[in-house]
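Backbone geometry tokens:
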Amino acid sequence: VQLQASGGGLVQAGGSLRVSCTASGRIYRINEMSWYRQSPGRQRVLIAGVERGGRTRYHDSVKGRFTISRDDAKRTVTLQMDNLRPDDTAVYFCNADVEIAPANSERDFEFEFWGRGTLVTVSS
């Protein structure tokens, strides 16, 4: 399974950017899809996640400014980022919990996958 991210770049404070991530490979079902970010010298943190049923969750710092969505037919998760601030500057990583085969009575086949990061820079 591969996660290919796109989008990101440089934007001024108050502007908007969108990052997307598409999953490919041996996929039976994708459960939660999410975005993390990591700033220099800091830990990677969960920014937003969307479950297969559509329920979403957000880090407090991005609530009301970021919107996560998914398109299951395209196996894509998108993060729309509005009203960006300089402290949003980070490398953004997509993450997906993927079942590569149906579960059986003995085990499930869900694994966590990461995409390569994409840089988002917000200038003041």
Remarks:
- The chain has no helices and eleven strands.
- The first strand starts at residue 2 and ends at 7.
- The two ends are 37 Å apart (CA to CA).
- The chain has a mean pLDDT of 96.
